[in-house]
Amino acid sequence: MDVDSETVSKGEEEQRKAIVLILVGAPGSGKSTFCDHVMQVSTRPWVRICQDTIGNGKSGTKTQCLMSATSALKDGKSVFIDRCNLDREQRADFVKLGGPQVDLHAVVLDLPAKLCISRSVKRTGHEGKLQGGKAAAVVNRMLQKKELPKLSEGFSRITFCQNETDVQAAISTYSALGSLDTLPSGCFGQKNPDAKIQLGIMKFLKKVDAPVNAGSVATSSQDSVAKELWNKGLESDSSSSANAGKDGGDLAVGSVVATATLDDIPTLAFPSISTADFQFNLEKASDIIVAKVEEFVNKLGNARLVLVDLSHGSKILSLVRAKAAQKNIDSSKFLTFVGDITCLYSGGGLQCNVIANAANWRLKPGGGGVNAAIFSAAGPALDIATKERAGSLIPGKALVVPLPSTSPLFSREGVTHVIHVVGPNMNPQRPNCLNNDYIKGCKVLREAYSSLFEGFASIVRSHTKLSKESSKKLGSALLESHDHFEQSHMNQFSNNDQKVKREGVYESERNKKCKGLQDELGSDITDSTDVKDKLNSKKINGSITTAWGSWAQALYHVAMQPERHKEDVIEISDDVVVLNDLYPKAQRHLLVLARSEGLDRLADVHKEHLQLLRTMHDVGLKWAEKFLSEDESLIFRLGYHSAPSMRQLHLHVISQDFNSKHLKNKKHWNSFNSAFFRDSVDIIEEISKHGKATLRDEDSLLSVELRCHRCRSAHPNIPRLKSHISNCRAPFPASLLQNDRLVCAPSKDGINQ
C-alpha cells in the first residue's frame, strides 16, 4: 500500500473534509494501538472515541460515543471509532455519521485469531478490563459472529489488514494524511470477500461441535484454541511485556495456554545451566539438554518442561529447539520460552509451579544472572528456606526448596518450589574451573540435569496419588486445602463472575446429581470413579460415611506419612502435621492436619478427641502468633469446614485480608465467611458439652449471596467484593469479636480497623 499513489491532494482552496474511520476487529487486534500511532504523527486533527473510556475515563454507552463523535465533527476534527464493530448492526449508527462533508472509512484488522487471543490474555491494565483467562472465550465468541463491512453499508473506503505488514501500511497511509488530503474510494486488501470466520478459528470450533463420547473430554472453544497453541510448542516472546497492556507488538502465542486453561499442569521452568557465567560450550550444552529432556519427558506423565532464556535471539534456545525437533520430542511436554524466569506468569502468562535456579556452590544470593534475579524476586524467604536445607551444593547436584507463601514469587507467580542446581564451570574467573576438561564437564552437566529433573519428578509425585497404571497421568491434585478442586481449572467467562464454564468431565452423560457435584467441586474431575466415589455417601446409624475419591486422599497420605512429603510440610509432631495451603485464599493460609486414623472430618470427632482438637488449636494459634510478630496488621481466624471435600480432619489458619488470586468464586468466599466455617473455639466447646459438633447444610450456605465479612454489605461478584474489602475498615460483626474467634496483635484488641 503506497501512500504516495493513493493520497490525492485537493488543494488549499477546497474545504477540508473530515473522516469517520470505523475500526473493525476483535479484542487484541490492535485497534487502540492503530489510533495511537496515527494520532502521534498525523497533522490532521483526530479524536479517538472509545466506549471503554467515554464516561470520564470509565465505560460508557454507545449514545455517549455518538454524541462525542458528532461534537468532534462539528469542530472540524476527524474521528476514530474504536470499538469492535464486528457486525453490521454494531456499525449502523456510526455509519450515519457520514455525509457530504464527512468521508466514511473502515479499517478491518482481520488478524489471526491466535494472535488476538494471545494479546488479549496477556495484556494487563486494559481499559475495558478484557484480559486474562476469560479473554480467550470472549474473542472466540465474537469472531464467530463476525460480519465484514461492505461498501453498500455506506462506506466510501474499506481497507482490509490480514497481517502486521498490512496494518503498518494502513497506519502509514492515515498518518500521512494532511488536513486537506483525501483517499480514493473502494476496497483495498480483501482476499476472500465471502469469509465470515477465519479458517483457523473454524477448525477449533469444529472440535467443540463434535459429539462428546463416553470417555472423551468435553472442551470449550476457548480450550480448543488454547490447547492447539500449546501443542504447537511455540516459543513465546514474553520479553515484549512492555506491550502487554496494548494491542501492539507481535507477541507469540505460547503464553496463552498457561493463563487460559493449562495452569493446572505441573510445569518446570529452567534456564540453560552453565552456559552464561560458567561459559560452557553451547553446542555441547544443547546436546545434553535435549538428551536429558528426551530421557525424562515421558517419565513425568503430563507434566511439562520449559527451557527459558531472556533473549529472543538466544542461541541456546535456537539450538535446543532444532535438536528437539530432530528427536521428535513431544512439543506438548517440552518447549522453549523467551522471558524473565522470575515473572513468567505476570509478564508472559505462563504458569510454572516450579522454577530452577542456576545457583552458585555456596547457595548464596547475588553474583548476577539468574541466581541474583531469583533470590531478589523471591525475597528473604527463599534465602532462609535454602539455609534450613543446605549450606552448599557441589556441581552436578540439585536441591529442592519449598517456597514459603510469604515469598512474592509464591503469591504473585504461583511458584511453589525452587530447585537450586549447580553446573560445571569453564570460566577461569569463577571458582572450581575445569580448564576446558569437557569430558568431566559433560559428565557433571548430565548429572546436573538428571538431578534437576529428578527433583521435579519428586515434587510431582508428592502432590499426586500415583499408581503404576496411572503414573503417566499426573494431575494438579497438589497438597492444599480441602477446596483445591473448587478452583484449580476455573475459567471465569462472564463479567458477573457467576457463570462458570467447566471442562474435562469424563462422562458420556451428566445427570443432575453429577452436575451438582461438579458445581460443588468447581473443577475438572479427571476420573469418573472420583465422581462416583464422591457421590457414594450415605447415612449409617445417623452418621455420614463417604467413599473418598483418589484425589481427595492427598491430605490423608501427608498426615499418615509426612516423612515422604518433607518438601511440603513445615512442622511434624506425633499428633499433627502443618503445611501451607498451596492455593491460599489469603495472604497467610495454612493447614493443621490431625494424624489420627478414622478422623476424616468433623462428623467423626467425639469427646475422646478433645485433647487432639486442643492440640490442633494450640498449634494453629502458635503459627498465627508467629505471623503476627512479622506483620501486626494481620487478623486471623482458626476453624474447620462443615463438610470438607478432602479426607483427613484439618484446621484452617487463615488471615482475614482474603487477598489472594486463588479466591475466585462464591463457594471459595462462603466456605470461609458463612456458618459453613466453624470456629475452632466453638467446636471445642460443642464437643466438650454435647460430644459432637453442629454441622450445617452445605449447599444452602455455599450459595448465599456475597457479603463483606466486616460490614456485611452485599456485592454482585468476586471482583467487586475484593475491591470493597481491600478498603473496608468497618468493625467485625459482634459474633466474631466474642470468645476469641479472631486472633490479632495485642495493639488491635478492638479490631476496628
UniProtKB/TrEMBL annotation:
<feature type="region of interest" description="Disordered">
    <location>
        <begin position="488"/>
        <end position="511"/>
    </location>
</feature>
<dbReference type="InterPro" id="IPR011146">
    <property type="entry name" value="HIT-like"/>
</dbReference>
<keyword id="KW-0238">DNA-binding</keyword>
<dbReference type="Pfam" id="PF16278">
    <property type="entry name" value="zf-C2HE"/>
</dbReference>
<dbReference type="GO" id="GO:0008270">
    <property type="term" value="F:zinc ion binding"/>
</dbReference>
<keyword id="KW-0863">Zinc-finger</keyword>
<dbReference type="GO" id="GO:0005634">
    <property type="term" value="C:nucleus"/>
</dbReference>
<dbReference type="GO" id="GO:1990165">
    <property type="term" value="F:single-strand break-containing DNA binding"/>
</dbReference>
<dbReference type="GO" id="GO:0003725">
    <property type="term" value="F:double-stranded RNA binding"/>
</dbReference>
<feature type="compositionally biased region" description="Basic and acidic residues">
    <location>
        <begin position="498"/>
        <end position="511"/>
    </location>
</feature>
<keyword id="KW-0479">Metal-binding</keyword>
<dbReference type="GO" id="GO:0047627">
    <property type="term" value="F:adenylylsulfatase activity"/>
</dbReference>
<dbReference type="InterPro" id="IPR002589">
    <property type="entry name" value="Macro_dom"/>
</dbReference>
<keyword id="KW-0862">Zinc</keyword>
<keyword id="KW-0539">Nucleus</keyword>
<dbReference type="InterPro" id="IPR036265">
    <property type="entry name" value="HIT-like_sf"/>
</dbReference>
<dbReference type="GO" id="GO:0000012">
    <property type="term" value="P:single strand break repair"/>
</dbReference>
<protein>
    <recommendedName>
        <fullName>Transcription factor bHLH140</fullName>
    </recommendedName>
</protein>
<dbReference type="InterPro" id="IPR027417">
    <property type="entry name" value="P-loop_NTPase"/>
</dbReference>
<dbReference type="Pfam" id="PF01661">
    <property type="entry name" value="Macro"/>
</dbReference>
<dbReference type="Pfam" id="PF11969">
    <property type="entry name" value="DcpS_C"/>
</dbReference>
<dbReference type="Pfam" id="PF13671">
    <property type="entry name" value="AAA_33"/>
</dbReference>
<dbReference type="GO" id="GO:0030983">
    <property type="term" value="F:mismatched DNA binding"/>
</dbReference>
<dbReference type="GO" id="GO:0003697">
    <property type="term" value="F:single-stranded DNA binding"/>
</dbReference>
<feature type="compositionally biased region" description="Polar residues">
    <location>
        <begin position="488"/>
        <end position="497"/>
    </location>
</feature>
<dbReference type="InterPro" id="IPR019808">
    <property type="entry name" value="Histidine_triad_CS"/>
</dbReference>
<dbReference type="GO" id="GO:0033699">
    <property type="term" value="F:DNA 5'-adenosine monophosphate hydrolase activity"/>
</dbReference>
<dbReference type="InterPro" id="IPR043472">
    <property type="entry name" value="Macro_dom-like"/>
</dbReference>
<feature type="domain" description="HIT">
    <location>
        <begin position="555"/>
        <end position="663"/>
    </location>
</feature>
<dbReference type="InterPro" id="IPR032566">
    <property type="entry name" value="Znf-C2HE"/>
</dbReference>
<feature type="domain" description="Macro">
    <location>
        <begin position="321"/>
        <end position="493"/>
    </location>
</feature>
